[in-house]
Amino acid sequence: MSIGIILIGLLVVIGGAYASIFNGLVHARQKVKEAWSGIDVQLKRRYDLIPNLINTVKGYAAHEKSTLEEVTKARTAAMGVPDGKIAKQAQAENMLSGTLKSIFALSENYPDLKADKSFLELQAQLAETEDQIAASRRIYNGNVTVMNTKVQSFPSNFIAGMHGFTESEFFELDEAEKEAVKKVPEVKF
C-alpha cells in the first residue's frame, strides 16, 4: 500500500512539474506576442505620419522627387511584410529608417522647411515614435530571450518539442545601425 501511495505522489509531482513547465512556455509565447503587438502599434503610427511628412516636404522641395519616392517605396515595402516574418520586417524597417533620415537631411538645404511648424511637429512626432519603437524592440527582444531560453533549456526543451513550441526571432538592427549606435556622438560648440 505504501508503494502505491509513493507512486501516486510521484505521478502528482511529475504531473505538476509538467504542467508548470508547459504553462511557463505558454506564458512566454504570449509575452512575445504581446511585445510584438507593441512594436506593431508604433510601426503603424510611423506609417501614418510619413504621408504628412512627405506632403510637407513636397511643398518646399518639389525637385527632390527621387528622395520622396524612395521613402514612399520603403514605407509600402515595410507595410507589405506578411505577419510573422520578423527578420523581413526588421530589414524593411531598417530601410525605411534610412530613407527617413534622407528627408531630414533635406531640411538642412531648405531653411524655410527647417523652420516650418508642421515639419518640426512631424519631425518631433517621428522622433518620439522612433524612441517608442526602440523601447518596444527592447521589450520584445527580452521576451524572445526568455522564450528561447525555455525552448532550449532542460527539461522544458522536451515539453516544448512535444507541443510545437519553437524559438522566436529577434527584431534586430541592421549592421549599419549597429555601427551607428556604437559610435560616440561628436559634440561641437
Description:
- The model is unreliable at 184-189 (pLDDT under 50).
- Helix content is 80%, strand content 0%.
- Helix 1 (2-60) packs antiparallel against helix 5 and helix 2 packs antiparallel against helix 3 (86-106).
- It has helices at residues 2-60, 65-79, 86-106, 111-115, 117-152, 156-162, 175-182.
- It has 7 helices and no strands.
- It has one domain: de novo design (two linked rop proteins).
- By secondary structure, the protein is mostly helical.
Secondary structure elements and pairings:
Blueprint: H1 2-60, H2 65-79, H3 86-106, H4 111-115, H5 117-152, H6 156-162, H7 175-182
Helix pairs in contact: 1-2, 1-5, 2-3
Brief account:
The protein has seven helices and no strands.
Number of domains: 1
CATH topology: de novo design (two linked rop proteins)
The chain-level mean pLDDT equals 88
**Low-pLDDT segments:** 184-189
The CATH class assignment is Mainly Alpha
- Count of alpha/pi helices: 7
User: Architecture, according to CATH?
Assistant: Up-down Bundle
Number-wise, the strands total: 0
The rounded distance between the terminal residues' Cα atoms is 85 Å
Rough shape? rod-shaped
Q: Kindly name the structural category.
A: mainly alpha
Fraction of residues in helix: over 70%
Q: Main sheet?
A: none
Over the alpha carbons, how many angstroms does the gyration radius reach? 24 Å
CATH homologous superfamily classification: LemA-like domain
Strand content: under 5%
In N-to-C order, the SSE pattern is HHHHHHH
